[in-house]
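User: Can you fold this complex?
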Amino acid sequence: MKPASAARARRAFKPDWPARAGWLLLVAYVVYAVLRLDFSVDRFVTGLGHGARFLERMMPPRIAQPDSLLTGLLESLEIAVLASFAGILLSLPIGLLAARNLMPAWASWPARAVIAAARSFHPVIVAIIFVKAVGFGALAGICALVVASIGFTAKLFAEAIEEISLKQVEAVRATGASFLNVLSFGVLPQVFGRFIGFATYQLDSNLRNSTMVGIVGAGGIGGTLFSAFQRFDYDFVAAILLCIIAMIMVGEILATWVRRVFVERGRVDEE
Amino acid sequence: MSEHAQGQAALSVRGLVKEYVRGKKVLDGLSLDFDGQGLTAVIGPSGTGKSTLLRCINRLVEPTAGQILFGGRDIVPLSGRELRQVRRRIGMVFQEYNLVERLSVMENLLCGRLGYVSALRAWLRRFAPADIERAFQLLDQVGLAEQVHQRADALSGGQRQRVGIARALMQAPQLLLADEPTSSLDPRTSVEIMELMRTLGREHGIPVIVNMHDVDLARRFADRIVGLAGGARVFDGPPAELDEAMLSRIYGGASWMQ
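Assistant: Here's the predicted assembly.
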C-alpha cells in the first residue's frame, strides 16, 4: 500500500457531515429570525427606559388590599397542593403503564399517548379550556395543573422505571412473587428516591403555575395580580410579586427538606 | 430425598430445545435427570446454553420445545398462578447476586417469601413471625447476623452472594439452581461460597444444580458433573471420570490445558 493512501485511510477522527450541516442550518436560521423580527439596539435602549420608569412606580411596594392578597395566596397554595397530590397519584399508574420494560405494547402505547396529550399544551391553555368547562375559580386551576402534573411526572416516572436493573426484578420474579409483590420489592425500591425527587419538583412547579392560572380566571393570586396590573397599581403589583417570591422560596425549602428526609437519609455510601 | 425415593427423579429435563432466534438452537434436545440430592456442576464453554438451561427450569426463559418434569409434573405448559407456585419451590442464585440493592439484608431475605405473602402484607412488611425467625437462622448459617439491617449495596461481593443463597433458601425450596455463583468472586471467596452451597444443599436435603466456569472448583465440590457443548450433553458422570480427553471434547482443543 502506498504511504499517501495509507495516511488517508488512517484518519483518527471521521468527519461528521450531518452534524456540521446541522450547526450550519442552526446559524443560518438564527440570522434569518433576527432579521425577520426587526430587532434594533434603539428599541432595546428605549425599552430599558420604560422599564426603569415602571420599576420606579413600583416603589415602595404597598399592600393595597390585604384581604384579596391573602385569599389569593392561600388559594394558590391550595391549588398547588391539591393538584400535586392528585396529579402525582394519577401519575403513578400511568407512569407504570407507560414503562416499556415492564408493560406490553398494548398497555404502554395508550399510556404514552395520554402523557403526550397532557404535555402538549401549556397549563394556561389547559386552564382556559377548564374555565370554559367548569367555570371560573380554583377548580379549573386544579384541573389544569393536574393535567400538567401528569404530563410531566408520569413521563419522568416511566423513564425512571425504564432505567431500573432488570436483574433485581428477575430475582424477585424467580421467587414466585406475584406481579404486585415484584413491584413493591423489585421495582419500587429502585425508583423510590427518584420518585420523591420528581414529586417535589412537581410541587415546586405547580406552586409557580398556580400563581399564573388566575390570569385566565382559574383561581389564585394570579387574578389579583392581573387586576392590579390593569388598574396601574404598580406598587400593589410589587407587593404581590414579593409575596409570590416568598411563597416559592418557602416551597423550595420545604421540598429540600422532604428530599432530605426521604432520599438522602436512605442513601448510604454509594461509593 | 424420601419423597422421590420410588425411582422418580426430582427433576427431569426431556428433549429441551431453546431457540432465541428461529433456527438457531442454543439447547438442542437436552435430556437430564436429577434425583433427590447432591450437587451437580454443569460445565461447558460460554454460549452453550448453561444459563438457558437453568432459566428454562424455573421458566424465566420460555423453552421452545421439550418437557420439564418437576415433582413428576410437566411445568412447561404452566402459566400465571400455577407457574408462580412452581417457582416458589425452586430457589435461584445468580452470578451478579441480583439483590435488590436499596433494600436491607433482611428485606432481601424476605423476598424469598414473596410467593406466599399477599401484596398488602408485603407492602406493610407484615411477614409471618416464622419467616422472620427462619431469616435470622439462615443469616446465622451464612454468617451475616451482624449485617441484618445493612443495605445490600453496602456489602462486599462474597457477603452479597451469601445473602443471595440465604434468599433462595428462604423459599424452603425443593431444588436450588445457581447460575455461575462464583464467577464474580475472588478464588478464596469462591471456595467458601461453593462450600456453603454444598453444605446447605445437604442440610436441607435438596438437589443443587450449579453452572460453573471453573473446572477445578467443579471437580472439588460436585458429586456429579454434566458437560455441555453445542447445546447438548457430552459428559455426565462423577468428577473422577472427567479426564483431559473429555475436557478437550467439551471445550475444544487442548492447548489451553497445561
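Chain B touches chain A at residues 58, 60, 84-92, 94, 96, 98-103, 107, 111-115, 117, 119, 122-123, 151, 153-154, 164, 167, 171 (CB under 8 Å). Residues 187-203 of chain B form the longest helix (17 residues).
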